Predict the structure.
Amino acid sequence: MYAGFKLVELKLGDIDLDEKNPRIVSQTPLTTQGAILAYLYEHEELEAFIKRIASDGHNVGAERPYVIKKGARYVVIEGNTRIAAYKVLTGLMKPPKDYAETVPNVSENLKKALLNVGCTLAPDRDALMPVMAGAHFGRGDKSQWGYLGSRQTIYNEWKAGK
């Protein structure tokens, strides 16, 4: 299942949030990084996660984000909330205006630690589906995708002939 996967160290600024993130359930596609960030704040408790990282520090023991290469950049397929939190805490992304005052100040050492991210580079999105489904469906070890997000993922897989 993990054939072709590699451990890589990436610059945070080279990683984009995933517009096809199964957690995103919206009638209007979210096509900008800012729109995805706003969605994570509104629907995925990003503010609380940011505060936890600011309080506890870099979550070194956390699973590495899974990314795929897209042109000269990378897209985080698994770990969007973590990458979004890192981007906000380092100033690479600005929170929506309603949340601008909620971003905690962190030390320069923490910011520096967040600017390079150990990731798992997957060959493509399809290679990650079994990993993501195992973690987020049913009794997976991560927070479950919501009802609509999990159904949307299954529908998209079916529609693609998988």
